[in-house]
Amino acid sequence: MSKFEHFSAQMAIDAVRKAALLCAHVRANLTADGALAKNDKSPVTIADYGSQAVILHLLQAATPDIPVVAEEDADALRADDNAALRAQVFAEVRRILPQLGNPEILAAIDRGNHTGGPAGRFWTLDPIDGTKGFLRNDQYAIALALVEDGQPVMGVLGCPELPCGHEATAKTGCLLAACRGEGAWLYPLDAGEAAPVKVSSTADTALACFCESVESGHSRHDWSATVAEKLGITRPSVRMDSQCKYASIARGDADIYLRLPTRPGYEEKIWDHAAGCLVVEEAGGTVTDIRGKPLDFSAGRTLRHNSGVVATNGRWHDQVIAAIQAATPA
Ligand SMILES: Nc1ncnc2c1ncn2[C@@H]1O[C@H](COP(=O)(O)O)[C@@H](OP(=O)(O)O)[C@H]1O
Ligand SMILES: [Mg+2]
Ligand SMILES: [Mg+2]
Ligand SMILES: [Mg+2]
Q1: Residue 63 bears catalytic tag
Q2: I need a surface site. Which of 14, 35, 243, 278 has the fewest CB within 10 A?
């Protein structure tokens, strides 16, 4: 791995940790006026904006020439109607980066407008993945990846509500990081030593544990139930918000992650998958779309050449793809 990648991985981990502090503080104090509905009706909160401001400011300082594809922009925050929410975003960001002025915070959020594409390097950020989970006090993730010539080469997943291990004493909050060709690593979210992670070695699909979105609007639960039946899986699915599902596959907690399209034409967003996909691949797993095609991060802000997502421990990925195809709803 190049010196640049080592440097950018350390910096990305540090940026995600800082954003996680902001998210935890917002969540502990969140009220109904801390969220807005975007044009597509999906929610966005003080913490989504704050996390994006913190990370994009730090990326600008460290890698000023690398553009960013991020989920949010500051348009709604600038509206007169949202003055109270805007003030809360400013206050939360300054708890983490006290020197930042209001215009710099808005400018940092707006740095995420790159179009992506096949050539060169860009960052992609989901400041909070699983905003609906965040609002429900369930799982959420902060996902940052570096994409080079259409391939994720470094990825960091901050998972503030995911326990760091299986022991009863395990701390809540972990972070997974991967660089292409270097494996995947698990860190405590706050600070501490890294340990390598590996996908499960479950050899029989019937014994697999599968996970999917909590939201039936994001992944078809009836379709996945039929797939599970075809694979002989008897355990019910584990429903979990956010890229914590990728973290679960990478750590071997679950064996299959199914994201089955709810409607034709929905294009998955690159920030919803880049970091998670690399972490799973580097932990030894396989990630494709529902037809078995690799995810194509070179097509812009979305995965428009793909449909849905399937991540597994890699042992019987083709069998899972075949079951999905055989169970395609009418
Ligand atoms: N119809 C749809 N199909 C698939 N994903 C969708 C979707 N509508 C929204 N999403 C994405 O689902 C993500 C959450 O995934 P999950 O259900 O696994 O928690 C959202 O990320 P955000 O929460 O960052 O907006 C959003 O980008
Ligand atoms: Mg969103
Ligand atoms: Mg997301
Ligand atoms: Mg998001």
Answers
A1: no
A2: 14
Per-residue pLDDT of 195-241, as tens digits, reads: 999 999 999 999 999 999 999 999 999 999 999 999 999 999 999 99
**Closest ligand 1 atom to Cα of 261:** 3
Query: What's the CATH number of domain 3-193, 3.30.1020.10, 3.20.20.80, 3.30.540.10, 1.10.10.1100?
Result: 3.30.540.10
Mutate to test the pocket of ligand 1, among 129, 238, 306 (most ligand atoms within 8 A of CB): 129
User: What local confidence, expressed as pLDDT, does residue 1 receive?
Assistant: 56
Strands 195-197 and 141-148: unpaired
Task: Verify whether ligand 1 is closer than 6 Å to residue 130 (CB atom).
Answer: yes
Quick one: pLDDT at residue 8?
Answer: 87
Instruction: Using the mean position of ligand 3's atoms as its centre, give its distance from the Cα of residue 103 in Å.
Output: 25
Mention the CATH class of domain 205-326.
alpha beta
Reply yes or no on whether the pLDDT at 142 is more than 80.
Answer: yes
Q: Is 255 in the pocket of ligand 1 (CB under 6 A)?
A: no
The 10s digit of each residue's pLDDT in 315-328 is: 999 999 999 999 99
Question: What spacing in Å lies between the alpha carbon of 287 and ligand 4's midpoint?
Answer: 21
Nearest Cα neighbor of 156 from 305, 63, 20 is 20
Residues 287, 105: Cα–Cα separation, whole Å: 35
